[in-house]
Specification:
Layout lengths: L1 E4 L4 E4 L3 E6 L1 H7 L3 E6 L5 E5 L7 E6 L13 H5 L5 E4 L4 H25 L5 H13 L5 H12 L1
Antiparallel strand pairs: 1-2, 2-3, 3-4, 5-6, 6-7
Helix pairs in contact: 3-4, 4-5
Length: 154
Amino acid sequence: MIEVSGQGGQIQFDGQYVTITRKGFLARATIGKGEKRLHISQIAAVQWKAAGPMVNGFIQFTMPGGNERRSAFGSQTANAAKDENSVVFTKKQQPDFEKLRAALDAAIAAQHAPQAAAAGGSSVADELVKLNALREQGILSDAEFAEQKARLLG
């Protein structure tokens, strides 16, 4: 389980579901309190803007059929702060969000792996090697690795 806290929102990722939770005054003032839960298969893209010394960054989830608006120069983060599928983070919080992003990228790739394997793409052994590498990097816990391994081995 990966848990990160940003400005006005928290994200939990258990390998299958992304849960965005909003608590407190800042959440109520911008988006509203509550929880949004997305299955990894619902996420079409993950938009990322790194934080800088003077500006916050954000992670934003795009779903098929979503109605995203292209932000004007200089207002991406401000618009993301008002989006229910985004969480803004500071430069100090960014390393935790980078780990989350890597885990999401791996999970999205794994979601499409059975289709690739059926089409002659990567083998189960290749996928196990990739999962082990994620575990060794600290992106997946031993329990998450075991769960994904069991899923691959059927």
